[in-house]
Amino acid sequence: MLKTELAGNRDNLFQIFLVACVATIGGFLFGFDSGVINGTVDGLKFAFHSDSIGTGFNVASMLLGCAIGAFGAGLSADSFGRKSVLLVSAVLFIVSAWGSGIATSSMEFVVYRLIGGLAVGGASVLAPAYISEIAPVRFRGMLSSIQQMAIIAGLFCSFLSNYLLVEVSGNSIEPLWLGFETWRWMFWIELLPALLFFACLLLIPESPRYLAITNQHTKGMNVLVRLFGKNKASAIWQDIRTSIDNNSAIKITDVFNPNSSKLKAVIWIGIGLAVLQQLAGVNVVFYYGAVLWQAVGFSESDALLINIISGAISIVACFIALMLIDKIGRKPLLLIGSVGMTFSLFGIATAFANGTIGADGQLDLGSWSFTALLQVHLYVFFFNFSWGPIMWVMLGEMFPNKIRGSGLAIAGLAQWLANFFITMTFPLLLTGIGLATTFSFYTLFAFSSILFVLWFVVETKGKKLEQMT
Question: Staple 65 to which of 114, 179, 301, 375, CB 3.0 to 4.6 Å?
Fold first, then answer.
């Protein structure tokens, strides 16, 4: 347990930052585990002799685990605590990283990816929620946005790791060290941050909101004193207790009962944010980037290098969002991102529509290659400037204390099911209707997100978690 205490009336920002950074290692693993598959697609096809449907399921199988993991973690967090569920996620990351690399069949691989999905799903909803529950109001958006920075850093490191390993071996199906194929080592690299995550989680405190929900007054006060000082701790504890007493809990079954008066509108807004974040197709770029660029004529090595560039742009965009989110708010950034994504996706679809099919059956973009690259990277920038970090920030802070676990469970389930749908269908759409029409669909969903933000999203900047109703 971190032991530094700050008596008085000042927040212990150094310790709050350290605790937030530990939680964001879960975000790093979320990104790494999601992105590592990008460079292993050819290896999986070769090792397991899979067709486009099988390849799509091998890639998307983790996302089913993510949906279950997000749903289960959201529910379990109110019973067992945020920290305890994150520790379980860390163990699952370790098991999945090792098992995905040793898999000898498609079914075995899918099982380990499902385990990894449970870990990613749990970390995806609980890390930002945990951060929002320990962060001061004035820095909550910035600290929660670090989660997305960590996700993108994880994606970037997985892309870089994949690229460097292929540079050493020649391609993903060639043996690397100890006689194991390169694609297996791509998964095993993840063991390093997964073990670090588990060790660091042992050092951080439980969320004071969870301790209040479970009536652990002494422990909760100790955590608040450690983070915010003695003079603030009592007032914060009282605010938390009041908000819990004033909010009635909801059951998951209320979601499926249209006549239920218990289900708050905020749950539906959370579902909308979660689903629209995925339906604009961003994870096609992150999961299938190598496939996408090889489909338009780039080599495997060049495609992996383009992924690295995309990761670097994502980090820059997240950093800008992190600097602005507590100054101009969540809703304006979402709106700017939606407009930017709509225009850039339209540009991508236009570039692909102007390509021609070469003698080798690949799409040849010719003079439109630069336009396609530029528009994809503009799209990546706008997403990570807005919907990437802000959706997670808002899910972590928009639900009242007493229903935060249930709200996260429902929204997390919706988010990962939408992710699975987009990821599973892309290989089929690629071979069926082509890239231009596929990206036209993503453009329509991005445009829909503009209307959703304007009509339904409520600003949360500057509000205490206890003010969320």
Answer: 114
| SS3 assignment for 42-111 | HHHHHHHCCCHHHHHHHHHHHHHHHHHHHHHHHHHHHHHCHHHHHHHHHHHHHHHHHHHHHCCCHHHHHH
Amino acid letter for position 378: L
Paired with 130 in beta bridges are none
What secondary structure, in 3-state letters, does 272-305 show?
HHHHHHHHCCHHHHHHHHHHHHHHCCCCHHHHHH
Amino acid (1-letter code) at residue 271: I
Residue 36 DSSP class? G
Report which residue type is found at 409.
A
- Return the CATH fold of 13-204+258-467: Growth Hormone; Chain: A; (1.20.1250)
pLDDT tens sequence across 58-105: 556 677 788 888 888 877 877 788 888 899 999 999 999 898 888 877
Q: Name the 3-class secondary structure at 6.
A: coil
One-character DSSP codes across 407-439? HHHHHHHHHHHHHHHHHHHHHHHHHHTHHHHHH
> Virtual CA dihedral for 262, 450, 467, 244, nearest 10 degrees?
30
| H or E element that contains 184 | helix 182-188
Q: Is 416 in contact with 80 (CB distance < 8 Å)?
A: no
Structure tokens at 362: 């690949």
